[in-house]
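sry for the spam today, last one i promise. struct tokens for design, 394 residues
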């Protein structure tokens, strides 16, 4: 029994990756339980189990006296098997948990095992099962049972049934990791991914820059004849990918981010991190994109708010601003409001406004005779109003 037990422990260590020390502690715990059953030990009585990790031989002691009962060996073996199986399962769960917890942020490969209420259970190469929740699935993708799949390890947490490995096909970092696997220059750190914005199943924008002047960052990501980026697009089942050249010049960065649209002019508000982007009329739909997708992804990519306008819209806005400025100049020229002129009360101001006189400038342009025809204003009052208006204007 001793040699057989030791052989089992060593086999489990080799095949399952569970440390020998963990299994020995599990066996000792099982033997302690068996010893209490055999000798009906009282709580105050001290029991001790010794197990030789080299020979596999074990002994049981009660108050430092060795237990030699025949039944102990038989019951101990049976009890040990049961507890060992249980401990092995627990240890396996811990091994899986720690292994995948250390892989959070990486890509895991597997096959579609089964479907559960919209979620997909992934067999991770026989080591464990991963869960691809419905919310973590791209709306443009469909999978079949047995199909090969790669997914981003988003989270690993402990559950009553074992480690729960949460996978994602929508995470922006899935695209980043795919580029790292596909583009050696990124993996080696020559080309750096500065930012990613993604609309799963539809489009991703990725900004890259090179740390080596001889290496073209965009060209490295695209690959010979587009092979590298095409492999990633195929992995994402047709999701479009825009590779943008990062630029410290925010205007150039915005132009690149809004590709494929061509930008005519950019007005920057650095303090509020906003930009007004002006395009030709025929470029508006490209700049905005379907359902605003292009401008939203570009805005998220660079971290700035973007306001897209055509040249026509910008000209109309400029015209309105000019009108506002003109009206402000008129108001400034007018000086005080009617109510602020000496001798003009609320009633007089109302009568003037009813006659179409709304500003101090209107009083001067109306003239003496016309003012006297307004209700409540005689010749003396009209003269006084003109004098006060002239003072206000000066």
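last one done:
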């Amino acid at each position: 029994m001793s040699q057989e037990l030791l052989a089992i422990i060593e086999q489990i260590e080799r095949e399952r990756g569970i440390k020998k020390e963990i299994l020995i502690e599990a066996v000792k715990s099982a033997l302690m339980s068996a010893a209490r059953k055999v000798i009906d030990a009282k709580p105050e009585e001290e029991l001790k189990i010794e197990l030789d990790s080299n020979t596999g031989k074990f002994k049981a002691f009660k108050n430092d006296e060795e237990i030699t009962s025949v039944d102990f060996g038989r019951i101990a073996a049976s009890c040990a098997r049961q507890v060992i199986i249980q401990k092995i399962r627990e240890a396996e769960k811990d091994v899986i948990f720690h292994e995948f917890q250390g892989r959070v942020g990486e890509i895991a490969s597997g096959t579609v095992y089964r479907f559960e209420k919209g979620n997909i259970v992934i067999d991770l190469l026989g080591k464990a099962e991963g869960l691809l929740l419905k919310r973590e699935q791209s709306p443009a993708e469909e999978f079949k049972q047995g199909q090969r799949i790669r997914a981003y390890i988003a989270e690993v947490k402990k559950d009553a049934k074992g480690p729960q490995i949460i996978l994602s096909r929508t995470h922006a970092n899935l695209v980043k990791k795919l580029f790292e696997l596909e583009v050696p220059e990124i993996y080696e750190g020559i080309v750096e991914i500065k930012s990613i914005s993604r609309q799963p199943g539809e489009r991703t924008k990725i900004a890259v820059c090179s740390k080596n002047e001889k290496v073209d960052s965009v060209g490295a990501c695209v690959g010979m004849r587009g092979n590298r980026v095409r492999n990633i697009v195929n992995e994402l089942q047709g999701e479009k990918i825009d590779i943008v050249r990062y630029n410290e010049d925010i205007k150039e960065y915005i132009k690149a981010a809004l590709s494929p649209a061509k930008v005519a002019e950019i007005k920057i508000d650095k303090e509020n991190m906003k930009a007004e982007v002006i395009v030709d009329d025929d470029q508006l739909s490209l700049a905005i994109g379907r359902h605003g997708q292009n401008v939203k992804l570009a805005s998220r990519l660079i971290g700035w708010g973007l306001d897209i306008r055509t040249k026509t819209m910008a000209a109309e806005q400029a015209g309105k601003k000019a009108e506002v400025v003109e009206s402000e100049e008129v108001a400034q020229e007018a000086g005080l409001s009617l109510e602020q002129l000496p001798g003009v009360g609320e009633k007089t101001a109302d009568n003037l406004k009813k006659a179409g006189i709304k500003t101090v400038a209107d009083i001067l342009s109306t003239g003496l005779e016309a003012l006297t025809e307004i209700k409540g204003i005689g010749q003396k009052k009209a003269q006084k109003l003109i004098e006060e208006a002239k003072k206000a204007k000066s």
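The chain is about 45% helix and 25% strand. ok im logging off now
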